[in-house]
Amino acid sequence: MPKPSWVFKILTILSLFHLSQAQTTPSCSEVDRAALIGFKARIFKDTSGILSSWVGKDCCSGDWVGIQCDAVTGRVTGVVLQGSSGNNALYMKGIISPTLGELKLLKVLVISGMKKLSGVIPSSFSGLIHLQQLVLEDNSLKGTIPVGLGQLKSLQTLSLSGNYLTGPLPQTLGNLKNLLQINLARNSLSGTLKFPNLGSLEYLDLSYNMLSGTIPTVLGLQSNMTFLDLSNNRFSGQIPDSLCNLKNLVDLSLSNNLLTGQVPARIGQLKSLSTLSLGFNMLKSAFGSFEWGVIKGYPFVIVYRSFLQ
Ligand SMILES: *[C@@H]1O[C@H](CO)[C@@H](O)[C@H](O)[C@H]1NC(C)=O
């Protein structure tokens, strides 16, 4: 029985559609596809369902969930794999494959909320020299922060919060003069904080680690800083007076440390500040009160409870 002509028409239309797609979007670079397949191979359980879409030759077709490509070159520029923070049933189990370091034109790498994604941050990531965003939040990554991340000169956002990372902050992060945001909260980082001068930094969250020593005076030079959270660490010594130079600061939290001495009086001059948390230290009051809550006469909310020695 001959096929009805409408079937032929639909097939023609479908194949034309396919042809025009192939012309506008070059299929993905074979090197990049191999790097992504290498990642997939190290994940032995994926309840997010993302990786089951990574099939076929063309990783730039739009079918591969989370993959963004340059429309002209067909090189992968973005890998964005986001789990949900609320839903514990969604996760990836396995390790982050070093092959992702072969995605040489990558600008954005986000693998977050995958909960059971373990192993170390591959040292091969130091080769991702075009990377602007590296976000590996809320996984189960172990080991230290690779020294080689200091080679990612274009990096603006570095977030590794919510993992099991240990050791100190690498000194090499001082090379990253374009960094706007650093979030390393909720890890097990330790050692003293030898913080570099990153003039353009706007956001620094190091809360819930085991960092010790004094709070670096140099933090007071980050004039664009709006958010600074060093709470829940083991910082000791005095609050550096230099922090009172941070005119754009909106949130400052230093609570739950081992800080001593007087709270700098000039802190009352920070007009942008909306929250100041100093509770659970051994500070002497500059506010004339040792109670929780709002201290009258200051333009911001102070969460403050002092234990006098
Ligand atoms: C601070 O921010 C302003 C406005 O975005 C910018 O022009 C300036 O270069 C920044 N300062 C530094 C030190 O990066």
In short:
Helices cover 10% and strands 23% of the residues.
Structural account:
This protein has 309 residues and is of the alpha/beta class. It has a domain at 25-192: Ribonuclease Inhibitor (Leucine-rich repeat, LRR (right-handed beta-alpha superhelix), Alpha-Beta Horseshoe), CATH 3.80.10. Helices cover 10% and strands 23% of the residues. It contains 2 helices and 20 strands. It has helices at 5-24, 30-41, and strands at residues 43-46, 67-69, 76-82, 92-95, 108-112, 117-118, 133-135, 157-159, 166-167, 181-183, 188-192, 203-205, 210-213, 227-229, 234-237, 251-253, 258-262, 275-277, 282-284, 301-303. The strands form 3 sheets. An 11-stranded mixed beta sheet has the order 2-3-5-7-8-10-12-14-16-18-20, with no helix packed on it. Strands 9-11-13-15-17-19 form a 6-stranded parallel beta sheet, with no helix packed on it. It starts with a helix and ends in a 6-residue tail after the last strand. The model is unreliable at 1-23 and 289-294 (pLDDT under 50). 2-acetamido-2-deoxy-beta-D-glucopyranose binds next to loops.
